[in-house]
Automatic annotation (TrEMBL):
Polar residues: bias regions: 527-539
One Pfam family from the record: EXS
Lineage: Eukaryota, Sar, Alveolata, Dinophyceae, Suessiales
The protein's name: EXS domain-containing protein
The entry's keywords: Membrane, Transmembrane, Transmembrane helix
InterPro entries, sorted: EXS_C (IPR004342)
Annotated compartments: Membrane
Organism, as annotated: Effrenium voratum
Tagged with keyword Transmembrane helix: yes
C-alpha cells in the first residue's frame, strides 16, 4: 500500500496518498497490529514440527521434536549429545590441531637449511602467490561458515535477508567441513614443499637450467597440485550445495559487475562489498599465473624480478593488470551506488559513492611518486570508510554504544502513542565496542593492500609476511562486518529493500527470547508523509 500510494503522490504531485489515505487504511485494516505476525510465526513453527512421532508427547513443539529424536538431536530413543554440540567438539579439535600444525610449519621455516650456499630465499618464496591464493580461498570458506553460524545462534535470519532459496540446505557445518579438508591439504602440501626445498628430499630435475644447483622442475608441482585440488573442491558436485546455488553466486557477481544495467538488491550489495575486501587476493591471481607459466626450474632473471616486484610478472603486468584488479571491485561498487541513487533518488547513495571513489583514488595515487599525497588520501579513505561502517552499515551511534545491551533507540521508529521504539540488538554492548575498535585498526592497515608492496618494505621475507597478514586481516574484518550489517538490515530494513520490517524467525533455529522478536513498524511510514519517509541508505 505504501509503495502504491507513494507512486500515486509522485504522479499526481500530491501528498494526499501518504498523508491521509495511508493512515486511514492502516487504521481500518489493523495491519499495524504486529501480534498477528507473531502468532502466524508460531503457527508456522508448530506446523513444521508436526510429525506422527510427536503427536502424543505433551510438551512444547521444540521439546517434543527433541524427545522424538528429530531436528537437532541424535538417534531416536538414545541419550546422545545434540548434533550441533558434537560438530562443535569436532570443529574445536580440528582448529586446535591445525594451529599446532601451523606452528610446526613455523618451526620448519625457522630451522637451518641444508647446504646454505645453494639455498635462496627468493627462489624458495617464488611460489608463495599460488599458496596465498588457495589460503585466501580456504579462509573465506571458514569465514562464510562462521558468519552463518553466528547469525544462526543470534537469531538473525540471514537466509531470508539475503533472499537465499529456502530449499538450500547449505549449513555452517558444510562450509566448515570443506574448509577443514582444504586446510588439511594446504598444510600437508606446503609442509612438504618446505621440507623438500630446505633439506633436498627429492632429487633435482634439470637443475643445470635453473637458478643454481638447488633449482628443480619438480618444485612447481607442489603449488600446482594444491591449486588443482582447491579448484576441484570448488566445482565438485554436492547433494547439499547444488550447482544451481553456485551458479546463483556467479550470477550475483555478474550483476555486481554490470550494476548500472541491473538493479541492486541486498545480496548483490553484499557481494560488491565482499569483492572490495578481496582486492589483494585478486592481485595474487596474475602473480600465481606468472609463476606457473614461467620457466621451470626458475631462471636467475625471473628470481631477480621476484626480488624487485614480489612476483614473477612483467613490468607491464604491474603497470596495468594489477592496478586494474585492485580498482575494479571499487569501481563495481561505485556503479551500484549510482544505480541505487537513480532508483531511489536518495542523496546518501551519493555519499556512499564518494567513499568508494576515495578508495579508488588510493589505488591511483599509490602508483604516483608522492608520499604526502598518498598519506593524505589514505587517511581520508580510512576515516570515511570507518565512520560509514559504524554509523550507517551497523546503525551504531553514541546512544547504542553507551547504553546497555538491547536498549538502542532507532531514529524515526515511533509507537502509535508517540513513544520511541527501541531496536532490540542481538549482541551485548561490549561486542559492538570491540567490533568498532577492530574495524578501525583493520581499516588502518587495509589501505596498504591497495598499494604496491614495494612501497611498504624492500625485504622479500617481510613483504611476503606483510601481504599475507594484511589480506587475512581484511577478510576477517569483512566477515565481522557482514554479521553486524545483516543484523542491522534485519532490525531496521536500513536499505529499504523489503516492503515490511518483519522478518520470520528461522524454523530450525534455537528458540530466541520473546523480546528478540522482530516486529513490524508501519507507523513509521504512516507518521512520515514527506519524502523523508524513505528508509536509510544501505552500506
Amino acid at each position: 500500500m505504501y509503495k502504491i500510494l507513494k507512486k500515486h503522490d509522485k504522479l499526481l504531485s500530491s501528498k494526499e496518498g501518504l498523508a491521509e489515505i495511508f493512515p486511514r487504511l492502516v487504521k481500518a485494516t489493523r495491519i499495524n497490529e504486529v501480534e498477528r505476525f507473531d502468532a502466524l510465526d508460531e503457527d508456522l513453527k508448530k506446523m513444521s514440527l508436526a510429525s506422527s512421532k510427536t503427536e502424543d508427547i505433551d510438551a512444547s513443539p521444540e521439546v517434543a521434536r527433541l524427545i522424538a529424536g528429530l531436528g537437532r538431536s541424535g538417534v531416536v530413543g538414545l541419550t546422545v549429545q545434540p548434533v550441533s554440540h558434537r560438530s562443535e567438539l569436532v570443529l574445536s579439535f580440528f582448529l586446535g590441531s591445525s594451529l599446532a600444525l601451523f606452528l610446526s610449519i613455523g618451526v620448519l621455516l625457522w630451522l637451518p637449511e641444508k647446504s646454505p650456499r645453494t639455498f635462496s630465499e627468493a627462489y624458495f618464496l617464488t611460489p608463495i602467490p599460488v599458496f596465498r591464493v588457495v589460503f585466501s580461498f580456504l579462509l573465506i570458506m571458514w569465514c562464510m561458515g562462521a558468519v552463518a553460524k553466528i547469525c544462526g545462534q543470534a537469531d538473525v535470519n540471514h537466509m531470508f535477508i539475503l533472499n537465499v532459496d529456502p530449499r538450500c540446505r547449505v549449513s555452517p557445518e558444510w562450509f566448515f567441513a570443506r574448509a577443514a579438508t582444504l586446510t588439511t591439504i594446504w598444510i600437508l602440501v606446503f609442509g612438504m614443499y618446505v621440507v623438500d626445498y630446505k633439506w633436498k628430499i627429492v632429487p633435482t630435475v634439470w637443475s643445470t637450467e635453473g637458478f643454481n644447483k638447488r633449482a628443480s622442475l619438480h618444485f612447481v608441482f607442489y603449488p600446482l597440485v594444491l591449486l588443482l585440488l582447491a579448484g576441484l573442491g570448488a566445482v565438485m558436485p554436492s547433494t547439499i550445495c547444488r550447482n544451481r546455488y553456485k551458479l546463483a553466486v556467479l550470477r550475483s557477481v555478474k550483476r555486481t559487475a554490470m550494476a548500472p544495467v541491473f538493479p541492486v538488491d541486498f545480496a548483490d550489495n553484499m557481494v560488491g562489498d565482499i569483492m572490495t575486501s578481496i582486492a589483494k587476493p585478486l592481485e595474487d591471481v596474475p602473480a600465481a599465473m606468472c609463476y606457473l607459466l614461467s620457466h621451470h626450474p626458475q631462471e636467475e632473471a625471473v628470481v631477480r624480478r621476484f626480488v624487485t616486484n614480489g612476483d614473477n610478472c612483467s613490468d607491464a603486468t604491474h603497470s596495468f593488470v594489477v592496478p586494474m584488479l585492485a580498482g575494479l571491485p571499487f569501481f563495481f561498487r561505485a556503479n551500484q551506488c549510482v544505480r541505487r541513487y537513480r532508483d531511489t533518488k536518495e542523496s546518501r547513495h551519493l555519499w556512499n559513492l564518494g567513499k568508494y571513489l576515495c578508495s579508488l583514488l588510493v589505488v591511483i595515487v599509490s602508483r604516483l611518486d608522492n608520499t604526502i599525497l598518498l598519506i593524505t588520501v589514505s587517511t581520508v579513505a580510512t576515516v570515511y570508510a570507518f565512520l560509514w561502517d559504524v554509523f550507517l552499515d551497523w546503525g551504531l551511534g553514541l546512544s547504542e554504544l553507551l547504553r546497555s545491551a538491547h536498549a538502542a533507540e532507532a531514529n524515526g521508529h515511533v509507537h502509535e502513542h508517540g513513544q520511541p521504539q527501541k531496536i532490540q540488538r542481538h549482541f551485548p554492548r561490549k561486542v559492538y565496542w570491540l567490533c568498532s575498535l577492530f574495524d578501525l585498526v583493520a581499516r588502518s592497515t587495509w589501505v596498504f593492500t591497495l598499494m604496491p608492496t614495494s612501497l611498504v618494505t624492500g625485504n622479500i621475507v617481510s613483504r611476503v609476511i606483510f601481504v599475507s597478514l594484511m589480506s587475512s586481516v581484511e577478510i576477517l574484518r569483512r566477515s565481522m562486518w557482514a554479521v553486524l550489517r545483516i543484523e542491522y538490515e534485519q532490525l531496521s530494513n536500513a536499505s529499504g529493500f523489503r516492503a515490511l520490517l518483519w522478518v520470520p524467525s528461522k524454523l530450525n533455529a534455537a528458540s530466541a527470547p520473546p523480546e528478540r522478536s522482530v516486529s513490524v513498524s508501519l507507523e513509521r511510514r504512516a507518521s512520515n508523509t514527506s519524502g523523508d519517509a524513505r528508509q536509510p541508505l544501505l552500506s
